[in-house]
Amino acid sequence: MPLARAYHRPTDLDEALGLLSDPQRVPLAGGTVPNADRSPSECELVDLQLLGLNQIDTSSDMMIVGAMVDLDQLRDACNDPLIAEMCRREMPSTLRTLATIGGTVAAGGHDSVLLAALMVSHGVGIDSNGNDCSLDDNPERLITAVRLECTGTTAWSLTGRTPMDTPIVAAVGRRDAAGLRVAVTGVGTRPRTVDPHDPTADLDPPDDFRGSAAYRRHLVATHVARVVEELS
What we know:
alpha+beta; Uridine Diphospho-n-acetylenolpyruvylglucosamine Reductase, domain 2; Uridine Diphospho-n-acetylenolpyruvylglucosamine Reductase, domain 3; five-stranded antiparallel β-sheet; globular
């Protein structure tokens, strides 16, 4: 965990933004990312718990999910099978009540199946000024909410070393009025959307102990084909 030189607990968003203007200060949401850090460095933590960012708005066709909503809360509130299942797979049960949607977007792990599911659900981050932020890159501004559109039909396919292991590669898809969107994990620094009909184009997956680049490209082609077939 980072070696915290100081701990701040702002009570409103303006105070939090003022504190975070110092690059030595980092936002603290559920704490699962800082606690998993194996390369600790000195910093000041800015706790976001009191900012009222833990609400879910389902009053329109779009779902607005506050950045501090935890994965269990989102899973219970969302009747979309893809989002609910990827909330379950994103973290073990002991961490799902801690890990937040904002932390998922900010950390953007290459194997985040939930982030991939957000991407195919027309997900965008909303910053403190109300502006949209793409989920394709790590956000440079504080994300206060994520907007989703969970309509249509969904499918997913994945390979892990065990049934509940973090997938080596996963493909998730959604077909709705806007067409078919597919995203894959395990091929770069973040999940990415791909062309359903040419999913391995421009992919440069890593080589590591879980699988070679060639094996990962093979998995992408296989799993995207399964997702496309199921949603055809």
